[in-house]
Amino acid sequence: MSFSAWLSLLAICCLGAMSPGPSLAMVVRHTLGGGRAKGIICAWAHSIGIGIYALVTLLGLAVLLKQAPMLFNAIAIIGALYLAWMGVQALRSKGGMSEKLAAGKSTDAYTAARDGLAISLFNPKIMLFFLALFSQFVVAADSLVGQSLIVLTPLIVDGLWYTIIALLLSHQSVLPKLKQKAALIDKLSGVVLILLAIRVVVTI
Questions:
Q1: How many CA atoms lie within 13 A of 177 on its CB side?
Q2: Residue 9 near residue 153, CB atoms below 8 Å
Q3: Inter-axis angle of helices 69-92 and 124-134, to 10 degrees?
Q4: Is 116 within 8 Å of 39 (Cβ atoms)?
């Protein structure tokens, strides 16, 4: 995988992690309800789920690329349409996250880890996102190093981002500012997702 291709992957993983949604709400819930440590536990448990999805998606697409290239291209096109749809939805979003960023009840470490892993593993939108995203990178990842980067990049980015969220929310004055930036993050994500969808179609 070239450095420029990895930078593209890194940028999309960052935007995907930063986009407000149920995963953010879960980390916020455990941070505000159980403290900084519980938020960090929830964050890295969530990232493990992301890594599992990334690995499963990568292996599946790699097999399709070798055995059924036409089916692989069809999935890539459908994935591009899905990315474009996500982009439009993000652009139309009002960033209304107030009800999702509510503090939760006090929790223990096990509950924080369980919820973090579950919110990623049982979210089918994450699998769809990876199917759409990885279709353009599987071709570039023709070595074990490249394939490892495809799996580890979203895992580490996700864990680091939500760890930062947990650290920031240890100071509760940060939460209102996060809510204010939700709409901006959505708009930025929307533009990038649409551009990525165009790139997928062009490179097929």
A1: 7
A2: yes
A3: 120
A4: no
Q: Cα–Cα distance between 4 and 149 in angstroms, integer?
A: 13
CA distances in angstroms from 167 to 28, 38, 45, 46, 140, listed in the order given: 10, 11, 16, 16, 35
Which whole-number Å values give the CA distances from 165 to 27, 49, 177, in the listed order?
Answer: 8, 18, 12
The two three-digit tokens of residue 162, written as one number:
């939500």
Q: Rounded mean pLDDT of 42-52?
A: 94
Residue 204 exposed, middle or buried by CB count within 10 Å (0-12, 13-18, 19+): middle
CB 197, CB 78: distance < 8 Å: no
With a threshold of 0.85, does the pTM exceed it?
A: no
